[in-house]
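Q: How do we represent a protein-ligand complex in a form that can be generated token by token?
A: Start from the inputs.
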Amino acid sequence: MEEDIKFMNEAIRLSKLAKYPYGAVIVRKGKIIGRSSAKTPVSSTIFEHSSMVALEDALQGYSIMGNLKGCTLYSSMEPCMMCMEAIMYSGIDRLVYGVEIEASNLFYNHIEDFSVMDFVKKVKPDLEIVGNICRDEALNVIKEYNNKFIEEDNKFIDMAIDISKTAYYPFGAIVVRNGKIIGKSTDDTPIKNTLYTHAELIAIESAVSNIKDSISRGNLHQCTLYTSCEPCMMCMEAILSEGISRVVYAATIEDSIEYFCDEFAVPFEEIVEKSNCKIKIIPELHRDKAIEVLKKHGRL
Ligand SMILES: [Zn+2]
Ligand SMILES: [Zn+2]
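Then emit the structure tokens for the protein with zinc ion bound:
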């Protein structure tokens, strides 16, 4: 147990230095023979998970098949299924992890990870698995990482509300990917007298046209839509079909009905649930600020 804590602390130390908040080490006979890099992900590949990097480091170019027998892998986070498959091939005897994989989705994540431990236990019963070692410490690193995104949410929802202050109708929306705005509604939204003049639609449309190589629907995956008001069904369709991963909204449709104009109060969360689309929704962020804008504009 003492040894487990010692090596888990090293995995957690690495998780604090890495780009994503995960770290891993591989130990043989009390010695670390592989570790994820402080620079993990080391390159822009799909194999950049900390466990994969630690495995590569320990294998030193040797084939993965059974070459890590007698080793323990310490990972600050329960490994995903890609890493689990590699761990099983490698012949590793013990897997010790800090925090369960679902915890990564508590705060901010575009990737829907889930536990495959039940399957692993069935197909590789001789792999010893120990969870919850230094769980709080491992989780704190993820929380700190996610705080950065909470700040980002606050900043971008304010920007969407700012657009709503000067727009023709009191609504504003922006689409953000990797911290950069790739689409937004304009101060003069609606820009023309058509059906499609909702702030969300204009923002999504401009984001799609900014992605030059877009040839099909669903290319706004990993994007967040910030909108000053809960989307209507017309906008919901565009959100779902363009594959937006997160939606942060300020005022509710009920607020819009109360202070601006008559609308159809279809709850966004319920539609998303029904659609089976995995969209993360952050509702009512800075709702008061958005309501102020609606009030100031007055009823239609
Ligand atoms: Zn992984
Ligand atoms: Zn709409």
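The longest helix spans residues 135-166. Strands lie at 24-28, 31-35, 71-77, 94-99, 128-130, 173-177, 180-184, 223-229, 246-251, 280-282.
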